[in-house]
Task: structure prediction
Amino acid sequence: MYTSLTNRRSFIKKMAALSAMTAAATMFPGIMFAEEQELKLPKGGNLEWKKGPCRFCGVGCGILVGIENGKAVAVKGDPNSSVNKGLLCVKGYHQIMCTQASDRLTHALVKKNGKYVKTPLNEALDLVANKMKATIKNHGKDAVAMYTSGQSTIPEGYVASKFMKGAIGTNNLDCNARLCMASAVTGFLTTFGADEPMGCYEDIEHADYFITWGNNMAEMHPVLFSRMLEQKNRRGAKIIDFATRTTRSSTASNKSILFEPQTDLAVANAICYEIIKNGWVNKSFVDNHIKFQKGLTNIGYGLEDKFKFEDKATVIDFNSYKKFLEDYTPEKVAKYSKVSVKDIKYLASIYGDPNKKVVSYWCMGMNQHTRGTWINNLVYNIHLLTGKISQPGNGPFSLTGQPSACGTAREVGTFTHKLPKGVVMKEENRRLAAKIWKVPYENIPSKPTYHATEMFRAVDRGDIKFIWIQATNPLVSLPKTSRYRPGMKKDSCFVVVSDVFPTPTSDVADVILPASWHIEKSGLYGNSERRTQHWDKMIDGPGETTADAWMFIEVAKRMGYGKLFPYSKENHVEEIYKEYSQFHKGAKHEMAPIEVLKKESGVIWPYVNGKSTNWRFNSKYDPACNNGKDFHFYGNEDGKAIIWQRPYEPAPEIPDAKYPFWLNTGRVIEHWHTGSMTRRIPVLHKAMPHSYVEFHPDDAEKLGIRNGEKVKVSSRRGSCILPASINERGLPTKGQVFVPFFDENMMINDVTLDAFCPISKEPDYKKCAVKVEKA
Result:
């Protein structure tokens, strides 16, 4: 259906907006979702439109919410947002509908004698504070933990970090961005010494080629994909889909290239081999701006509890790197990657052509990878060898999955190893945090503790006695959930969950706190292109729903830390943001003032002298460059980026005679993450009411499985029963099955493996071995 697109409106504007209007007709009679110039209001309609960001993915689309009589009744794309230019995807158009859900959490619930009892919020917060204090007194500060979210606002993430690391004095804080973006973080840090992309979405208007690495953008980032399609149709830009299964992105691309799971590592090295062999290296760029290193190999997969790993870098030279690549000729790699020699050479020729601009895009396919840091490094290698980086239309770009995974996890520092600036391991960062937070320097621990997977292993072991989970649903999203569900139910751990809706995670909570939906509070998000977006509270939430940041503050006060959190309830978002902005003074990461953010539909950092820095590390665009050269990778002390020698290594678990299929998991366009919000939107739920398992037709025929038949997918960890899908949404290669993970009634993450990248600690949801049989 995508190949006939003539412009960027055809896919999402027609399909999504029309379905949105149909749904709106039943819920808000007479209100239509449309761009401003097309809006038709009912007679007597008097809507006030307020700006904000979309609640869902990390693209960061700007929205306008129509408010009437104190209620949100319509949504449209913000035409002033350079991200989406008035366009929204199907989820964006429908987002406010889920706030009307009948099972909305409106009051605190406390478990008493096995049953939840409606409790005044103040009383519930008293209980949370008392439990935290008692746990710290009896078991030590590292017995309490907090697990937050890339859906949290920047102020919420900042307060969580200050509360746990500055006030209590434990690094037991991590977030669900560990499950999706940690490999992007460590990839940037190890190559450039600084996190987050150097480019921006404007690259789409300049690039000649878009190469998507394991990324179904048509469904995962449809607004950006529509912008790419516009360039394809308007000026002949080409989209190359490089993936392990055929998707809607594949059919809309100029070319689709399929590879065997895990072998993207080898193909990336083969591309570099070809670039060097054919003399396509940008020698001047490499000589002036690049150094070469290799790290450890055979580094494990993190499967055992309390797994520890620290990489060790060794300096090498170009000739050593060139010799290493001799094991990755196209002819050798083609044999096990299932990518033809011709296609490997074709990819290399695109990157190697000095007259073609190339942007590489990726998301979970590369990041949820047991060698996630490595594959990020290897794609950077390609751009660094050719000098195609930090320029309009030239650059590697890691997309994010959550609305503030960048702003709240990566910038604010809700990872165990991070602070609002830098890492806890560096004394200068701890001293800066202590100064701004007004806490003793010794309060802030110098060593990270638990990343997400290990945090819930610690709950299961009984090492963590108290955990507060905010705006996320780990008992659906964690890998190998079959282990953690029983552990979360144990009496040895007191569980607090703050959320908007009940979830399988809140089902095991001792206290459930009613959180505000994003437009029911003020806040800020940070999207994939370093764009910070502010919004003011638009409507009141039901019952005693409260912003998470304020619930954190109230608990901190009850625990005796009131002096550290002197914010007012009415204005705490602005007060917190101004305090947080002190961490990023200077041209490398200056944040826009709150007054600017209130006026604009998002501003990219660094914001220097009243102007956003769209391309970092290039002295033509970036005022932080000060080495007198065209490029300055100032995240590293010597100003040079690193090309890493990283080998191909197989996945920790591969298909065998007993478990002959690869399992790959992911998302669909209708639903977002664990579905706790989108499954409460009637039109989206009707469009995709349940999960399924995709088969290649030849595998289905061999197994005697027909479309819609119930099938049992089993691994060494668990099983899941789903209906079969053959020749419908996507097409796996032979020997592979694909399952979306949005459906809490079909728990595919019971089946997945909890192996992770030893450097980033991000789990690999894309590759494990399963068997399939009729249910």
In short: Confidence is low (pLDDT under 50) at residues 1-44. The domain at 190-399+639-645 is CATH 3.40.228.10 (Dimethylsulfoxide Reductase; domain 2). The chain has 25 helices and 31 strands.
